[in-house]
Amino acid sequence: MGAVELAAAMRQKRFSAVELLDAFLARVERYNPALNAIVVLDTEAARQAARAADTTLAAGQPCGPLHGVPMTVKDSFDLAGHPSTFGRPERRDHRASRDALAVERLKAAGAIVFGKTNIPIDLADWQSFNEIYGDTVNPWNTARTPGGSSGGAAAALAAGLVGLEIGSDIGGSIRVPAHCCGVYGHKPTYGIVPMRGHAYEPGDAESDILVGGPLARRAEDLAVTLDIVAGADPEAPGAWRLDLPAEPRRTLGDFRIAVMTGDATHPVDRDTQTAMEDVAAHLESEGAAVLRDPALPLPSDELWLLYLTLLRGATSARFSEAEAEAAAEQAAAMDPGDMGYGAVMRRSVSQRHFKWLQANDRRERLRGLWRGFFGDVDALIAPMMATAAFPHSRGIAKQDQIFDVDGTPRPVSDTYFWIGLASTVGLPATVAPAGMSRDGLPIGMQIIGPEGQDHRCLTLAKLLEQGFRGFVPPPGYD
Q: What does residue 185 show for φ and ψ, rounded to 5 degrees?
């Protein structure tokens, strides 16, 4: 069941909040030891919250949209009294003094937060393992990654250990795990979800590109949760008001949609291409106008490079002085014409500020080009990765990781192209199930919309869930 379904069933007295929490905790006890998705538990505080939820309901008092729904949060979101390690061994004993704003809002909406889920160190991998908590595996196939960095979140949802999750995304960290584990995830428009309580230290500046958003088993849960966590931070000076446009259309036939089935520079495998073609065919069967493989606002290699320049500029803040100097020295020793990920990454983390400013200007021009693109179509549907979840690549630097694309080795860093379609200029993107690979792994699609049109993406995800494909549990977890 989805989170909204669970809350409705509780209001109908089909079960109590305590019973529901105990049911999820029983599944955690049964399945989590093999998955290692949930790495922190706070069962006593959760039981107190569940008892309070039952008292509120019995008294006939108003209930929030997530009343009594048990959930977990990604390690990097502060949960008062518990560590936010970011996978760093030196943060093992960290304890948050207060909840992150998103967690506060979820609790105020009635959610019962009973733990935290695993991530890679510094949230910097499409796998989820670290020295503190160990490895998280994919419930569809334990030899495969659950994705990262919100990998524990997606694995816990797919295995039915939680009713809802909240993750973060700067380099695909909501969308890649949703794709790998066959669940839903939404990367909001940049800036609409305040990130207070998602940083190494209180008071750190919010990062460029980084957003927070929900993961769930139903598209409806994403929409409800986004409306809960979005909106200005009341503690921020000059707080603004958010008024996201609603999406009034209720049939696929009312939309004009572009569908990418692949890319010549960053190829996808046959299973992924087939899934995208099936999506396009379904849209057409429902009366939607479909534009296959449209021309993008920038050539794909230029978009990949611009996104990485901005992304690695944003993530360079976590480098020590010595690490930054080493990256600069390594970049200077490389062939200026080398456009491999390792070279681009080193140049980008050590770029001078004027270089970043020039890249930011290019981003602004690209933002205008995307607005023109979405003047002709309502949304863009594209692959999330070149393949389904890839095998674990522990101990291998990202620039050296490869995956098999129909027998051809390709760099895992190709994935930055698909991520950058939305992330470069902060567009909203919803990941939804699109198909299955021949070896039985889920394949996701991302539904990308114009800035601020989050509910358009979410509505399309709901319509596709109803008539095309939705979440199915992995074998052995239903």
A: -150, 145
Q: pLDDT: is 31 or 478 the higher one?
A: 31
Beta strands 289-292 and 256-259 are: parallel
Separation between Cα atoms, residue 236 and residue 140, nearest integer Å: 42
Please give the DSSP secondary-structure letter assigned to residue 141.
Answer: B
Of 49, 64, 47, 71, which is closest to residue 11 (Cα–Cα)? 64
Cis peptide preceding 149, ω within 30 of 0 = yes
pLDDT at 318 over 90: no
Task: Give CB contacts under 8 A, 24+ apart, made by 199-207.
Answer: 200/86, 200/91, 200/318, 202/97, 207/170, 207/314, 207/315, 207/317
Nearest to 40 by CA among 123, 96, 109: 96
Strands 256-259 and 379-383: parallel
CB contact at 8 A, 123 and 174: no
Pairing of strands 211-216, 184-187: antiparallel
pTM: 0.98
- The string of DSSP codes covering 47-63 is HHHHHHHHHHHHTT---
| Contact in structure between 86 and 122 (CB atoms under 8 Å) | yes
Helix (H) or strand (E) holding 361: helix 353-373
The 10s digit of each residue's pLDDT in 91-144 is 999 999 999 999 999 999 999 999 999 999 999 999 999 999 999 999 999 999
Q: What is the pLDDT of residues 374-430, one digit of tens each?
A: 999 999 999 999 999 999 998 888 889 999 999 999 999 999 999 999 999 999 999
Q: What is the pLDDT of residue 389?
A: 98
For the chain, what is the mean pLDDT?
Answer: 97
CA of 147: how far to CAs of 85, 171, 225, 281, 328, in Å? Answer: 18, 11, 22, 28, 29
Residues sharing a CB contact under 8 Å with residue 25, sequence separation 6 or more, in sequence order: 43, 70, 114
CA–CA separation, 173 and 374 (whole Å): 25
pLDDT at 41: 98
Give me the residues paired with residue 445 across strands.
Answer: 383, 432
Q: pLDDT grade, residue 6 (50/70/90)?
A: very high
* CB neighbours of residue 61 within 10 Å: 8
| DSSP of 289-350 | EEEESPPPSS-HHHHHHHHHHHHHHHHGGGS-HHHHHHHHHHHHTS-TT--SHHHHHHHHHT
Q: Is the backbone of residue 33 left (phi > 0), alpha (psi -120 to 50) or beta?
A: alpha
